[in-house]
Amino acid sequence: METRGRLIYSKRYPSENIGSLGVSAGETGAMAWREPAVASDGEFLRRLIEDSNFIPNSERRKRAQDFIGLAKELSTDYEIGADVIEYPYHVSVKLYLYCTTYMDELKEMLVDLLTMGDDITFTNSKTGTEECILAIDYMTHDCYIADRKIN
């Protein structure tokens, strides 16, 4: 199974250092970055890969362009850092968000992007900035694990 993706969009915008805003890190509620725990036994991953089956879905493939377009529009219109990565069976959008209030049209666009996606992941940034990374995956294929459809 191919695991490397092709970067099809990437954009970053300058951000203010939270220290310059007169707020201490303790006031933001930010947690220090911790490396995720990795299972020492690769049996689970091996079985997951062996039991996975991907069936092309032409409708989902077509709608992936809408997903990509909305992510790019969100990034450029609101200067939100983003990566769009195309993998063999899905497209992943990573948004680099800061602790702030998201309202009106921006909020609606985020909700639309989240609704289009099949799964989401939130992580802290490894860079030490106060950003949160929101990853949204859109499956371009029907995915079955052990003959059970998961998307």
What would you note in describing this structure?
The protein has 151 residues and is α+β, with helices and mostly antiparallel strands. It is globular and about 45 Å long. The model is unreliable at 23-29 (pLDDT under 50). A 5-stranded antiparallel β-sheet has the order 1-3-4-6-5, covered by helices on one side. A hairpin with a 3-residue loop joins β3 (81-86) and β4 (90-98). It is built from 4 helices and 8 strands; from the N terminus they run βααβαββαββββ.
Task: Give a concise summary.
With 151 residues, this protein is α+β, with helices and mostly antiparallel strands. It has helices at residues 25-28, 43-51, 58-78, 104-116; strands spanning 6-11, 52-56, 81-86, 90-98, 119-124, 131-139, 141-145, 148-149.
Distance from N terminus to C terminus (CA atoms, Å) equals: 18 Å
Give a short account of the largest sheet.
5 strands, antiparallel
Share in helix: 25-40%
**Class based on secondary structure composition and strand pairing:** alpha+beta
Give the H and E element order.
EHHEHEEHEEEE
Sequence of strands across the biggest β-sheet = 1-3-4-6-5
Q: Quaternary arrangement of the chains shown? A: single chain
Quick one: overall form? globular
| Helix count, DSSP H or I runs of 4 or more residues | 4
How much beta, percentage-wise? 25-35%
User: Low-confidence parts lasting 5 or more residues at pLDDT below 50?
Assistant: 23-29
Global Rg = 18 Å
Mean residue pLDDT: 83
Beta strands, count? 8
Write out key terms for the chains shown.
single chain, 151 residues, alpha+beta, three-stranded antiparallel beta sheet, 4 helices, 8 strands, 32% strand, globular
